[in-house]
């Protein structure tokens, strides 16, 4: 039967020890039922894995089932969701391009209306309309333990915008140097799916270079599909890593991660990892004392932590020594337990900081599912903040897999509070905290899907600004030494 035939592979996967790649596009109901009740998943036509692969655990097969169903639903709503996103982006930008609502009416009557240009410095994406802030908080200076985290989330948020907007933000609002925008190729998607930018901040003789990856677009079903996908490659010496994130960062078909000097140059298209690595080497050559940080929100957060993982895979010791830290916001899980142990060794060896921020009931840090040591797990410390922006350091965010009957009532109760808070927060904290209409619409969605609006950048910016200075002085249990370490979340205060 056709449904019993293993997928015809188009790529040589010899660069990996093992792999499991889900392809839910053409899967039918009967295929899914057989997945639940037959252990030999290697016979399923929508699962690409070595022949004879068996999954004994029903619960693990059920997790795969849920992942495929979620991806199927997202595939079905891909175009409608894109249309909704385009409409949401168009109307506010249309009004702004014409000088406001009343001028727009006049321009329509006179036939002089101006269509928005999505490459202009004024154009805002759906994320930008969610949180319109561009300036850094002037009350948080370099000596403040919140500074680097506050800078990192603003960069992660800005990465969703077009190049002209980002350049103007960095140069005019942050008074820093814009180093470049990267629009990068995905070998598997055969499209430019990965974006990032770099900037430089100089304070006296010190220089901090930043790399920020763009995250999940709220109206891009493909991005959301990557977040819930369980596909993985097992890389030798590293562990199982999320296939979608590897591909977005620059995984090469049939080659995996060749060394930069082995990368074939006949394809002029830039790959994120290789292009950003080269730019960093060029910039750091001019200042031996400079450091760099990597940041991102959502999918961008996954790419941010994967970047040093591949640097370590290539034994880029000199670059890793200059990596001040990785700051991620709303990061999904990227690898298994072995990958987590690998990254812990990398972080410890090179003295790097890894700060994984999670706001309240944010859905994305709780996917893909953490069902056992077989699949995806977080590692390192979780800087968890509740809806009052009170922070604590945990080994894992509460309700780690999101779907919990006991957590449902508190989650929806919290969603009601977040909606109410959106109308009053600016009275206490100032006009810059006034939430936009778009943001409040997302808060309403939270009454249906609790935790979805919590993934937006608004609350992550707020927690870095409204969280107490003390909450950024990390108190954590060092499990290896059974002691307590206290250190600030600010790279400028780092001690060797």
TrEMBL record:
One of its GO terms (molecular function) is triacylglycerol lipase activity. CDD domains: Lipase_3. InterPro entries: AB_hydrolase_fold, Fungal_lipase-type, OBL-like. It comes from Artemisia annua. Keywords: Hydrolase. Residues 211-370 form the Fungal lipase-type domain. The keyword rRNA-binding does not apply. This is Triacylglycerol lipase-like 1. GO terms for biological process: lipid metabolic process.
């Amino acid at each position: 039967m056709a449904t019993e035939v293993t997928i015809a592979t188009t790529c040589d996967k010899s660069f990996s020890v093992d792999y499991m790649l889900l392809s839910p596009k053409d899967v039918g109901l009967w295929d899914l039922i057989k997945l639940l009740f037959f252990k030999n998943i290697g016979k399923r036509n929508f699962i690409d894995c070595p022949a004879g692969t068996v999954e004994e655990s029903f619960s693990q097969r059920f997790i795969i089932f849920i992942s495929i169903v979620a991806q199927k639903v997202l595939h079905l709503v891909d175009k409608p969701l894109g249309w909704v996103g385009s409409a949401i982006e168009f109307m506010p930008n249309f009004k702004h391009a014409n000088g406001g609502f009343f001028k727009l009416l006049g321009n329509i009557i006179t036939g002089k209306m101006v269509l928005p240009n999505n490459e202009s410095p004024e154009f805002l994406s759906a994320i930008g309309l969610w949180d319109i802030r561009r300036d850094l908080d002037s009350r948080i200076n370099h000596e403040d333990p919140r500074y680097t985290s506050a800078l990192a989330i603003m960069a992660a948020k800005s990465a969703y915008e077009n190049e002209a907007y980002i350049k103007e933000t960095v140069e005019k609002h942050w008074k820093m140097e814009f180093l470049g925008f990267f629009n990068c190729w995905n070998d598997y998607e055969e499209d430019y799916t990965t974006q990032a930018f770099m900037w430089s901040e100089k304070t006296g003789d010190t220089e901090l270079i930043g790399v920020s990856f763009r995250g999940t677009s709220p109206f891009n079903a493909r991005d959301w599909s990557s977040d819930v996908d369980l596909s993985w490659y097992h890389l030798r010496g590293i562990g199982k890593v999320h296939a979608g994130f590897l591909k977005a960062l620059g995984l090469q078909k049939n080659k995996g991660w060749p060394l930069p000097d082995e990368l074939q140059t006949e394809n002029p298209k830039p790959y994120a990892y290789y292009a950003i690595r080269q730019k960093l080497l060029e910039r750091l050559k001019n200042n031996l004392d400079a450091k760099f940080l990597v940041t991102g929100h959502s999918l961008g957060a996954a790419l941010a932590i994967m970047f040093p993982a591949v640097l370590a895979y290539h034994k880029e010791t000199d670059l890793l020594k200059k990596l001040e830290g990785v700051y991620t916001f709303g990061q999904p899980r990227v690898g298994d337990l072995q990958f987590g142990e690998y990254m812990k060794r990398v972080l410890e060896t090179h003295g790097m900081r890894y700060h994984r921020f999670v706001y309240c009931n944010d859905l994305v840090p709780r996917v893909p599912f953490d069902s056992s040591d077989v699949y995806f797990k977080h590692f390192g410390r979780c800087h968890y903040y509740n809806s009052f922006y009170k922070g604590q350091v945990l080994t894992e965010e509460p309700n780690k897999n999101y779907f919990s009957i006991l957590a449902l009532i508190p989650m929806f109760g919290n969603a009601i509070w977040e909606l109410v808070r959106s109308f009053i927060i600016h009275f206490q904290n100032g006009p810059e905290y006034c939430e936009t209409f778009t943001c409040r619409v997302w808060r309403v969605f939270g009454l249906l899907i609790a935790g979805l609006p919590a993934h937006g950048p608004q609350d992550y910016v707020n927690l870095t600004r409204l969280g107490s200075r003390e909450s950024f002085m990390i108190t954590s249990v060092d499990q290896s030494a059974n002691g307590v370490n206290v250190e600030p979340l600010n790279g400028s205060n780092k001690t060797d």
